[in-house]
Amino acid sequence: MDDELHERVREVIASVPAGSVATYGDIASVSGAPSPRLVGRILGEDGQDLPWHRILRADGTPAPHLVDEQLQRLRAEGVMSDGQRVDLRKYRWQRDPADDAGSGALF
């Protein structure tokens, strides 16, 4: 992975606002990362200063090893869960198309 892609993934994660969530796949799609797993790897290795808690698995659940802290942080921002699942229809981040300036991003 090159440094440019790494920074693009970090920038997209940083742009997810409080009170919203995105999936690893959403971040991969917007940033041009080849897979959601790469997004997870970047968060795991270099995501301590990012709003990592706003990034969820495709089914709306947190990373199993971080579930309690992640859901607590999300609740503090007004994102409620049903058990351990966040309703993506309600809380999923919708990227402002103006932010993309013709990049063709989906969110």
TrEMBL record:
Domain of life assignment: Bacteria
Region forming the signal peptide: none
GO biological process terms, semicolon-separated: DNA repair; methylation
Pfam families in alphabetical order: DNA_binding_1 (PF01035)
GO molecular function: methyltransferase activity
InterPro entries: ATL_DNA_repair (IPR052520), MethylDNA_cys_MeTrfase_DNA-bd (IPR014048), MethylDNA_cys_MeTrfase_DNAb (IPR036217), WH-like_DNA-bd_sf (IPR036388)
Keywords: DNA damage, Methyltransferase, Transferase
Domain Methylated-DNA-[protein]-cysteine S-methyltransferase DNA binding: 5-79
PANTHER family in the record: 6-O-METHYLGUANINE DNA METHYLTRANSFERASE (PTHR42942), ALKYLTRANSFERASE-LIKE PROTEIN 1 (PTHR42942:SF1)
Listed name of the protein: DNA-methyltransferase
Naturally occurring in which organism (per UniProt): Amycolatopsis keratiniphila
Lineage: Bacteria, Bacillati, Actinomycetota, Actinomycetes, Pseudonocardiales
